[in-house]
Amino acid sequence: MYRIIKRKAAICLKIERQWRGYGILRKRGDLLKGIFIVIEGADGTGKSTVAEGLYHYYKEKGLDIVHTREPGGPKISEAIREILLSNDNHEMHPRTEALLYAASRAQHVEEVILPALRAGKMVISERYVFSSLVYQGLSRKLGVGPVEAINDFATGGLAPDITLYLHHPEGSSFDRITDRAADRLESDEDIRLSVQENYRILANNRGDALTWIDSTQDKGSVLKDCIHAIEKERHLR
């Protein structure tokens, strides 16, 4: 039994290295011409407002832009989104939830994000892998490592060029969600009580991979800070 387990572990490590190698190529810009921007933050921090503001700003500048979101995007990913967020599915197991998010993301990457980046477009996505590490890895207690591994596989190692983290330092921002009924995750007490703090924990742990934006500022100031960060990244490319 020990030999079987050891052999399986070696195979998994080999696969992981292959997929991580793909990600390294992506980070060097060897494969793609566009720029991939991800907006992260707990619910109610203003991700959609920022994404729409960036879209209109760069559209007016003449850039070719794709604005998308997670979970969702293409038809298959949107169908998975309905399952994930429906209040009819409260019995969903955390592992099922994590795998469905990864499946939705895999389709999103292959059908929307990669083609746009290959065409030299700017892609703005509301949420990406970081959200799964927070929600499923920490709040659902599945562990950051396992959730990161399935998402490395799902995305082929595709990493954002810049991740804008909308930080809300004064506590929970769920009370800012007033224009719609809460979905399955938003109405889950365990999520509501833990996700804001878990965003802070993971963001502090991986601060070098994030660009922190104070989301308590007025909308204009938040957008201005985001544009400044993106322009800095574009200048370095």
TrEMBL record:
GO terms for cellular component: cytosol. Gene3D superfamilies: P-loop containing nucleotide triphosphate hydrolases. It holds the Pfam family Thymidylate_kin. GO terms for molecular function: ATP binding; dTMP kinase activity. Its EC number is 2.7.4.9. Keywords: ATP-binding, Kinase, Nucleotide biosynthesis, Nucleotide-binding, Transferase. The keyword DNA damage does not apply. The keyword Nucleotide-binding applies. Coiled coil: none annotated. It catalyses: dTMP + ATP = dTDP + ADP. One of its GO terms (biological process) is dTTP biosynthetic process. ATP binds at G41, A42, D43, G44, T45, G46, K47, S48. Residues 39-222 form the Thymidylate kinase-like domain. Phosphorylation of dTMP to form dTDP in both de novo and salvage pathways of dTTP synthesis. Belongs to the thymidylate kinase family. This is Thymidylate kinase. It comes from Aedoeadaptatus coxii. The lineage of its organism: Bacteria, Bacillati, Bacillota, Tissierellia, Tissierellales. The gene is tmk.
